[in-house]
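Re: weekly structure request thread

Next one in the queue (152 aa):
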Amino acid sequence: MFAVPFGLIGVIFAFAIHGEAIGFLAMLGVIGLVGIVVNDSLILVNLVNRMREMDPEVSARSAVVQATKHRLRPILLTSVTTVAGLLPMAYGVGGSDPFSAPMALAMGYGILFATPLTLILLPCLLLVQDDVRTLACKAIRKVSREPIRKAP
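Done, posted below.
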């Protein structure tokens, strides 16, 4: 779910530079955008988790790097083809539709911004999560090893 704000940054930027209001159809585009962005990030996180389950000895960093390398092409191809299909509709190339243009603008720019952020920041957030989990486990083990002292 951390990837959703990445897409919203693109939507806000797109509507700000085009000077348009975010209406109902644009919000429908945001809902579609959320589905695509969550799918991209889920593909990456799922592969990291599977790699760590299959080989518990692999480090978190190694699993994140390998998963990101393995899923880079599918995520980029999905995003590029979707943006290439949406932006002509958003700008009215070949005819314009005032109803679908805001939806396409929201989805196109949202994916355009969310994809690099998902491929860069999401792996970083996964590593931060692993570091926090490791520190918490160490702290819990340290507290559980200390003898319980009774008050006098």
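The CA atoms of residues 82 and 108 lie 7 Å apart. DSSP finds four helices and no strands in the chain.
Next request, please.
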